[in-house]
Amino acid sequence: MKLISACLLGVKCTWSSDDKYKNDRAIGLSRVETLIPVCPEQLGGLTTPRVPQEVQGGTGEDVLNGKCKVINKNGEDVTKEFIRGAEETLKIVRQLNIKEFIGKSKSPSCGCGQIYDGTFSGRLINGDGVTIALLRRNGIRIIPEEDL
Questions:
Q1: Least buried of 29, 40, 70, 91, by fewest C-beta within 10 Å?
Q2: Domain, as residue range, for 6
Q3: Residue 47, class by beta-carbon neighbours within 10 Å (0-12 exposed, 13-18 middle, 19+ buried)?
């Protein structure tokens, strides 16, 4: 059993409320293995659809350490919601004794290895999203969607 970014299974939970991030490999895996879909941004209280958001001035690890924030494209601080969503995801992991999470690349929550740089320009930086950073801290194996 694994947790997975819900958008990879076609759940319309993305900022744009569409299923463009659906991953055929994830769908195939769901036919042979139990995958529990979660959207940390929704778990944190953000609406769908929502204004795009990015980590500004660092990575998810920096957000958890209070060194930077998650800001949406309108300039609103959504850090609290991102941290709450990460914490709620960790609760699910612990309750179900989950050891692995499949994450959506480049997401400010579920990005694994690279996220957008906070300028809304499409540029990437090395680092994880907020939820991935918290799960890594707690010993959860992270699987980027590209590795499915």
A1: 91
A2: 2-147
A3: exposed
